[in-house]
Amino acid sequence: MRLLHLTDTHLYGDPAARHYDRIDTAAALRGLLDRLGTLRDIDAVVHTGDASEDGTAQSYRLLHEILDPFAASLDAPLAVVMGNHDVSAVYGETVVPGERLPAAQDRVVPLPRDGRLIVLDSSVPGAGYGHLAPEQLDWLREQLAVPAAGGSVLAIHHPPLVAATALLRGLDLDGLDALAAVLAGSDVSIVLSGHYHHEMSGEIAGIPVHVAPGITNVVDPLGGGADERALALSGASLIELGGGAPRVISTVLPNAGDVLEDPERPVYRFDPAQVARILEAAGR
What distance in Å separates the CA atoms of residue 160 and residue 192, rounded to the nearest whole number? Predict the structure, then answer.
């Protein structure tokens, strides 16, 4: 099974809006998809959250205006996970059940080859960090009690990994031990996440975790020193399952929505004082 893993498009309802007054996020997504146009034999397209920046119905319509034809060209189903910038209720109202899968709740999405994608909504209204309620873990445990013939993939916006930077550690997923206890011994072959905006790998309960690079920008977790910075890049990952450990292939390209066309200039750079203010507003 081959999955195309996309994440963090941060689309706006207002076509004139720019992310950090710089990135045309719709152009970033379209440009990346154009560069991925030669991909074939994709079994599903999975978007792991922060589909929208402003949580508007218009932004979700734009998302599907762009992604639906792309997924259809691959003859692949599309699944969209909710992230901390998303508004699940708005998405569920905008995307009509029966036409596309709503992401306003946890759900199971059938995959080819008798597999399944299990989607968890880790968003917390008004916050940047992630959380899974006890009833969500109970629901996940019930789903995993009956294995799928083709195995399972878990998609959740906030990675079940300790973050690499101080800012992201204040905005990561809590309750990792409880989630690990549910996943232990299950048929989940990989966990797919976004949120960190940079590629990262690890594991939970012995299960590989892959964080795909962001589409609207890519965070530099190593080169910023004490600061936090993101670069005008866009990325995506290809996940290949079956016949052993998952194989992950990622690409990072110049951002097609960068109105400054300056890949050397960070999209943002936050010093420790700015990080503290962000965490005060959106962290725990």
Answer: 9
* Residue 193: exposure state from Cβ atoms within 10 A (0-12, 13-18, ≥19): buried
Report the candidate in 194, 193, 182, 171 with the shortest Cα–Cα distance to residue 134: 182
Give per-residue pLDDT as tens, 216-270. Answer: 999 999 998 899 999 999 999 999 999 889 999 999 999 999 999 998 899 999 9
- Tell the residue number behind the tokens 């299990």, with chain if given: 118
Domains of the chain, CATH where assigned: 2-282 (3.60.21.10)
Residue 97 CB burial class (10 angstroms; 0-12, 13-18, ≥19): exposed
Nearest-CA neighbor of 172 among 220, 126, 130?
A: 130
Helix ranges (H only) for the chain are: 25-35, 57-73, 88-94, 134-144, 166-169, 176-183, 272-282
Global pTM?
Answer: 0.96
Tell me which residue of 124, 180, 127 sits closest to 154, measured CA to CA. 180
User: What are 120-153's pLDDT values in tens digits?
Assistant: 999 999 999 999 999 999 999 999 999 999 999 9
Residue 101 has pLDDT above 80, yes or no: no
Instruction: Say how far apart CA 155 and CA 133 lie, in whole Å.
Output: 16
For residue 182, what are its two tokens?
Answer: 């549910």
Sequence-distant (≥ 6) Cβ neighbours of residue 69 within 8 angstroms = none
The tokens 């990561």 sit on which residue? 172
Distance, CA of 102 to CA of 112 (rounded, Å): 19
Candidates 127, 64, 67; CA nearest to 91 is 64
